[in-house]
Each structure stands twice: as structure tokens, then as C-alpha cells.
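*** Fold description ***
***
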Amino acid sequence: MARAAGVSQTTVSLVLGGNKQGIVIQEATRERVLEAARTLGYVPDPAARSLATARNSLLGVFSFTATFPTDARHSYHPLLAGVEQEAAAQGYDLVLFTGSSAHGPAATTPEQLDRVRLADGCLFLGRHIPARELRRLVQDGYPAVHVGRRDELEGLAWVGADYVSASADVVRRLADAGHRRVVLVREDDDAPASDDRERGFRLGLERAGLPAGPEAVFRTADPAAELTAERVRAWRADGATAFVAEETDTGGAWRALLDAVAAAGLAAPRDLSLALLGEPPADLVGGPVPTGFDVPRTELGATAVRLLVSVMAGEPLAEEPRGGEPERGEPGGGGRQPGPLVACAFRAGATAGPPPPPPPGTA
């Protein structure tokens, strides 16, 4: 190309590289180089450009789920759609890392997670994460954003859904309908999303003046085995008229609750009210729409990309005030956080209503 334009290779590099050095180049010389590039069909080498700029205009997406959520029925699919749309708007391509998929190596070693350094920055998804490896990436200064609250990793930026406020709102609506005892069913793990839903549930009970002690939450490692028809009948006999389940990747708590209610010969909202803190798994979408809330996953994905771009640019994280709980420093409370919370929209659904008359023999 230099020979075709009658200039030096250095001049060609300056013109095609945008002359960021500010060296004076005559317009006629510049035009000769560009004309030669057009004639020869020159296309910039992205690998060479990334070496020169230390950037390659790639954003990574790494999932800690068992399989990468590319199925359109997966709850993460709309989130990934938001990521894709916003990445394109920001001028980035995406690279999906599948190291934690069923057919790939587990992301439990520094070497596996280090692959994300191929991208300029990376979004991380998943209820459970290898904290030590992710902490090391953050300490090394690698731009990372987790989709979902992660207070336990200092310095890690995150964006999350406001499960606390949304869960408290569901309980408030049940209380306004007349329910005086509500039980939450959740899986026995310490995922921040589950903790936030329980925190909001208890907050809603306290604000409504309803019982919020240990008996208000049924925590189980095996919902299908431990949540039985007999247990539901016992709760009903003890005055519980509304039952709430959390959303998880498997939908285990909601599935078990539906099965136990049906096995007990009960139906919602005729005999009791049911609510889901999130959305049902794809295979249950055809049933009655559950009362609860919708997670704005597309908006969540787009917000995560914008936050990651800010982190990559070295901009200080905006400490945004939280709504929800009054305790400062608590998720969803009056403290401040390293990223935005996205509000969830209440879903009226068809599984909740006023409480039925108490069973015979109860006060």
C-alpha cells in the first residue's frame, strides 16, 4: 500500500490509524493513502489494532450457571437480550464464556476465570460464584460487573433488581386483602437474591403488623420432599391463608408449593392465596399467572452494560441511595451501593384474593 500511494509505511500507518499523534500530513498525501486503501480493499486487522490500543472493543459475559443460558425459555434470556442491545449501542461486540457449562471446565481455578481477560471487561451472572477467583480479578484492576447484589466482594461493581422493595410490596397487598398470617417458602441456600427476598418479605410483615417470627419462613434444602400436603393442611389449620415462594433458577420452591397445595385438595385463590416473588419457570408459564412481581431483566442487562463501560473508563462508581429497608447499609435499605437497583413491577396475577373463611374448628 505504501508503494501504491508513493509514501512511506510510517505515513500509511499514521493515516489509517487516525493520526492520533497529531503529526502534520498534507491533505493530498492523506487522500493518496486512502485511495490506495480503497483500491487494494484494505480492511483493518482487529488483532493488530487491539495490540496497539490495549483494547479490542469486546465485552465478556460469564455465567456461573450449570449451562450457559442461551435457551430462549431461560430466565436469563431477556437479560442477555438487554446486554446485546446495549453493547451494540455502546459500540462493543460480545464474547460469551462457557467455562461453567455442562460440557466445559468448571470456573473454579484462576486459569479458567482468567480467560475473560480476552475482553476489555466482563459481566458475571449466577446465584453462586467462586468468590476467591473473582476477588482476585477485581484486585488486579480488571473491569468487572456482577448482575445481582454482591456486597461480600469489596470493590466489585454490581447492578441488581430491588427484590427487597418488590417482596415487601407483595406482602403489603396480601395484608390489604385481609390475610393475617403469611408463610414464605424458600430454598436453603445463602444466595443474595434469596436473602433479599426474605428480607423484603419480613419487612412487609412488620409494616403490616403481621407475625414475622421464625414460623413465618419455611426454609428447605429439598422442597419437593419436605413441602407436603400434610404440612400445607397444618399451616391452614393454624391460620395461614397466604403462601409465598421465591423464584430460583430451578423454580423448586414454587413447584413444590403448587404440588403440595394440589395434593391437599386445595385451590388458589378459592381456598388460599399464592404469590411468587419473581416469575415462574418456562414449563409452568401455561398455568394460571401467579400473583407476584416481574423482574425487568432486559433493563437489568442494559444497565449492567452501561455500568461496565463506566468502570472500564475509570469513572468513579455513583453511590446511589437505596429505597426499601430503613437500616442503613443493608441491601434495599437507606444505605448506599456500588451500582443501581432496578425496580420490579407488581403483577396482579390470578392466584391471590381475599382469605377464605377459617376451617371448621379454628378460632
Observations:
- The chain has 13 helices and 14 strands.
- Residues 163-295 form a domain with the Rossmann fold fold (CATH 3.40.50.2300).
